[in-house]
Amino acid sequence: NLQSLELSGMDKLVALPNGLRHLTNLRSLSIASNGELKELPEWISCLSSLQQMELLDCRKLTSLPEGFRELTCLKKLQISLCEGLKKRCEGPDGEDWPKIQHIP
Hints:
Largest sheet: 4 strands, parallel
Mean pLDDT: 95
Number of helices: 2
CATH topology: Leucine-rich repeat, LRR (right-handed beta-alpha superhelix)
Structural class: alpha/beta
Helix content: 10-25%
Distance between the termini: 26 Å
Low-confidence stretches: none
CATH class: Alpha Beta
Order of helices and strands: EEEEHH
CATH superfamily: Ribonuclease Inhibitor
């Protein structure tokens, strides 16, 4: 039962591996320094136990999927050095704000 996962420094990673959708007990996910990652998958909502997530230095990541609305256990979302994404997540006018406004 994997509870914590860090995906870091994978320069050629353009998408999260589909197998991660089965990690339903995952509580913490850190995605850092993955320069080619452009989007998070809709199936992110399958990570229903996720309590904290960090998105760090993923500069091509520019939006969040609708599935973020379903991450009801998520208590902490940290976004750093992802400038395009960070602006979209700033409330109340950011385009992605409605997807994450439930996070305390």
